[in-house]
């Protein structure tokens, strides 16, 4: 915790600084209001302890300055008996609390901890608000192909039902975009949309992230942590890569799914929330059930409504619309409007896109950066795409099925190139490919690239 102490009485200031630093906090201790005004301009604090009566100005002036900066600092005012009215005024101006001198150390520490809990809660709520304000354009579902039109009709039907939704599809097909679209249809007035990626968290961390923890739940748990299910209350919890969820957690997740109840780590109290769960996976969960890697009861609970997202190679008529969308989404570095040469669009429609929409988006964004002219030509397409172009369609005419390498060969080639570009760094290669590290390891084993 970053603490600011503004106190002109040297013994008290040094005492507080020593005790709070011994408790593991980062403390800046000052005697003059002018010094504090300069410091808060340069540095953010979690909690500030401000003496109202200072030699050069009132602590209330410092409070006003901190408030004007619109940061998340909570201020605690220290006051003598004669300045209690000023402390009440400070509360009206946004101070968290005030303490009357001489205050006991335990009392000061308790108020600091409560103020810090409010800081953490406000930050987490700010994250939720940012999710609500996230641009609709950036998550827009684009396309007019028959498969996308059918998908839209299905989404409109299921949006208002509280039942869980399972979205299955290859990596990069836009599963989160669909989840956000369902959420937007279900909550037109706005509600939290909170996402969690099962592939990036270990079992212990996942439970802590999902359900939160009570203060003192484990060493270092100095304050209560609000879990994602609580942040999603009244809205949608998007559980991405649910197929990667450890078996040990699947039972707890199933219980939450069925009851809406959960228990934070280290807490004896069971809590309940109203949350719509949308889960997504790039695995075939039914097969994972047969292999004993996914609980059958959880599968059937999630599979109330199932959505299959088509890969881009099965909706190629949408590629020009997607390209146009990405051109608007990623403005040219030069500020000039750009367009693609028809031959490039023809190439795009002849390529099988093993990375799906994510790969197309990356190619468009890179072409915008690399091209010097307003018209983007074949020469502006990244080198690895050129190689695939020559292999797939040297005449730029729509190829026959026999003219394509197999999808597995394309995927293997794609993974090899990602590893080459990132000098064998699997973590960076997985990020570039838009898949989880676990998924990459599975593919490396599948293609004998270990």
Briefly, what is this?
48% of the residues lie in helices and 14% in strands. It is built from 19 helices and 16 strands. α1 (10-22) links the parallel β1 (2-6) and β2.
Cα distance, first to last residue?
A: 43 Å
**SS strand fraction:** 5-15%
Write down the oligomeric state.
single chain
As for the CATH topology of the largest domain, it is Rossmann fold
Counting structural domains, the number is 4
| CATH homologous superfamily descriptor of the largest domain | P-loop containing nucleotide triphosphate hydrolases
Shape: globular
Unreliable segments of 5+ consecutive residues: 384-404
Tally of DSSP β-strands = 16
By CATH reckoning, the class of the largest domain would read Alpha Beta
Helix content: 40-55%
Round the mean pLDDT to the nearest integer and report it.
83
Going across the major beta sheet, what is the strand order?
2-1-3-4-5
Number of helices: 19
Q: For the report, how would you describe the main beta sheet?
A: 5 strands, parallel
Would you tell me the structural class of the helices and strands? alpha/beta
Notes on the structure:
It is a single chain. The protein is α/β, with parallel strands linked by helices. It has four domains: 2-128, Response regulator (Rossmann fold, 3-Layer(aba) Sandwich), CATH 3.40.50.2300; 134-308, P-loop containing nucleotide triphosphate hydrolases (Rossmann fold, 3-Layer(aba) Sandwich), CATH 3.40.50.300; 314-404, Orthogonal Bundle (Helicase, Ruva Protein, domain 3); 406-450, Orthogonal Bundle (Arc Repressor Mutant, subunit A). Helix content is 48%, strand content 14%. The protein has 19 helices and 16 strands. β11 (261-262) and β12 form a beta hairpin. α17 (407-421) packs across α18 (426-433). The longest helix has 29 residues, at 105-133. The protein starts with a strand and ends with a helix. 32% of the residues are buried. Residues 384-404 have low confidence and may be disordered.
């Amino acid at each position: 915790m970053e603490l600011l102490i503004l106190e002109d009485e040297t013994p008290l200031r040094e005492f507080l600084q020593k005790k709070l630093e011994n408790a593991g906090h980062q403390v800046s201790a000052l005697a003059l209001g002018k010094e504090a005004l300069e410091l808060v301009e340069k540095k953010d604090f979690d909690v500030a302890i401000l003496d109202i009566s200072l030699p050069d100005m009132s602590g209330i002036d410092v409070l006003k300055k901190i408030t004007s900066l619109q940061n998340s600092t909570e201020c605690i005012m220290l006051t003598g008996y004669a300045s209690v009215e000023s402390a009440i005024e400070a509360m009206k101006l946004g101070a968290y609390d005030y303490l009357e001198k001489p205050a006991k150390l335990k009392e000061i520490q308790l108020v600091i901890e409560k103020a810090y809990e409010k800081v953490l809660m406000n930050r987490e709520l700010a994250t939720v608000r940012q999710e609500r304000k996230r641009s609709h354009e950036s998550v827009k579902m684009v396309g007019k192909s028959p498969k996308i039109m059918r998908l839209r009709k299905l989404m409109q039907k299921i949006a208002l039902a509280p039942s869980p939704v399972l979205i299955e599809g290859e990596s990069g097909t836009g599963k989160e975009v669909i989840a956000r679209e369902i959420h937007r249809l279900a909550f037109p007035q706005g509600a939290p949309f909170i996402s969690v990626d099962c592939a990036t968290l270990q079992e212990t961390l996942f439970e802590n992230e999902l359900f939160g923890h009570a203060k003192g739940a484990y060493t270092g748990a100095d304050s209560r942590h609000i879990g994602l299910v609580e942040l999603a209350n009244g809205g949608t919890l998007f559980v991405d890569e649910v197929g990667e969820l450890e078996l040990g957690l699947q039972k707890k997740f199933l219980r939450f799914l069925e009851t809406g109840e959960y228990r934070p780590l280290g807490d004896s109290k069971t809590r309940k929330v109203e949350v719509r769960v949308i889960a997504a996976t790039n695995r075939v969960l039914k097969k994972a059930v047969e292999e004993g890697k996914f609980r059958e009861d959880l599968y059937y609970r999630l599979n109330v409504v199932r959505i299959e997202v088509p890969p881009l190679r099965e909706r190629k008529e949408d590629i020009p619309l997607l390209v146009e969308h990405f051109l608007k989404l990623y403005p040219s570095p030069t500020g000039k409007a750009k367009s693609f040469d028809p031959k490039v669009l023809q190439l795009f429609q002849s390529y099988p896109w093993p990375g799906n929409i994510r790969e197309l988006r990356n190619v468009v964004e890179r072409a915008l950066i690399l091209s010097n002219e307003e018209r983007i030509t074949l020469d502006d397409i990244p080198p690895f795409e050129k190689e695939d172009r020559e292999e797939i369609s040297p005449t730029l005419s729509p190829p026959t099925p026999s003219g394509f390498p197999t999808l597995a060969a394309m995927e293997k080639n794609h993974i090899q190139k990602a590893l080459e570009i990132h000098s064998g760094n699997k973590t960076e290669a997985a990020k570039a490919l838009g898949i989880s590290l676990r998924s990459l390891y599975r593919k490396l084993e599948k293609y004998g690239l270990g």
